[in-house]
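Page 42, continued from yesterday. The earlier attempt failed because a stray header line got pasted into the input along with the sequence. Redoing it now with the clean sequence only.
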Amino acid sequence: MKNNKRQKFRWYFRIFRFIAEKRLKQEDLDPRPIHTLLVTVLSTGVLMWSYAILADFAISSSIPGSVGYAMAITHLLSPLLFRFTNNAYLVCNVTLASGMIHQSTFSYYSGGFHSFSLKWLAILPMLAGIINGTKGAITWGVVTLLVSSGFLGLELMGYTFPYLITEQGNLIGNALIQFGWIGLSSVLIGIYIILRENNEKLISMQSKRVDELFRVLFHDLANPLGRIDIGLTIANRQKNDPATERGLNIAAKAIDAMIEITQNVKKMYVITKERSGQLELIDYPLNEAIQYIQTIFHEPLKAKNIGLSYESEKYQDLKVLVEPISFKNQVLSNILSNAIKFSHEDGKISIQVIPLGPHRVAIEIIDSGVGIPKDLLDDLFNYNKSISRPGTKGEKGTGLGMQIMKSFVEKYDGEVAIESIEGSGTKIRVILESEGAVRP
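This time it went through. Structure tokens are written below.
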């Protein structure tokens, strides 16, 4: 079916490929706005040329005809700009500006504010919205309003617009409006329906792919992790060297963490997918969570000779309302991992707890590392942008740790705040519900 449609409209797809060739190769622009603008130009182009010819033969001044032909050519060639730029907003503005100049000139010489042609300006915000979304609709809504208000203002001030169109030309112009609106609205509705259907199909396909990927994670990854865990257990029985024992313990904890993370992601996926249920929050001892990440990050801290300070005695009665697995592995681990990654050798990291009331505390992880540049800080929690940069010793990451961390904290009804000065370090504050006191 898809091939039959392409055969039927092969002339259109040849034009599209010529126009969009560079954008498709460089993959720097979604092809949908190119399709939309091209169809818009082809459908409105008939009207542009019709009014240019009408102005040439039915208006006694040569100006509207000359402007009409010039703008019709500009309008027709405007999609070729995609061969030189990926700025769909710019191309759309050139296309619509040519239409506005053409119709405004025609209107001026055919009665001004009373001209039938002025009504065509009302379609420009609609076209801009279809091509460029909200930004285009707002831009051309404002422009159209200003131009229309200008014609009305001149009329109210008593300005006499020239009426140089013949009666037959006036009749033809009104007929173009009547039948043009019918044809153009049909085309626009058709474009909208096609784009909506294609978008729904794309979303459905992407959802199925995500489901498959999660099934692989939940099922296939669990088997090798289980076998590694068995292997570590066997090796642990034959240990006789303290360093080996410590390494096996760290590896075993890491394997346990990966299994727990897999199970937890599965739980969150089901909750999100079904839009029901929630994470099971409990009052969890903060000291246990900190002791866990101190063990997990013992080697990375040692490798950079970074000191980690935490006064466990002060917080031994303190519990925070969290889901323990995600709190240890996705919240604290992501924060400490970044603190280590962006700290220099012989640096310092401190974990402090600030009481905010009888049942609320702020956990602050403070490092003296390289800090976060202002432009990256603004997008740190933006899921649409991956903020990844190498650490002080070239460490790599996914750039998604902070977004994941924040999403879990919000599941606990908590808050996250970050303060950072480039070159002076970073402080990440996690605010949570709590039970128990902080000792002096």
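Notes: The two ends are 75 Å apart (CA to CA).
Reminder to self: strip header lines before submitting.
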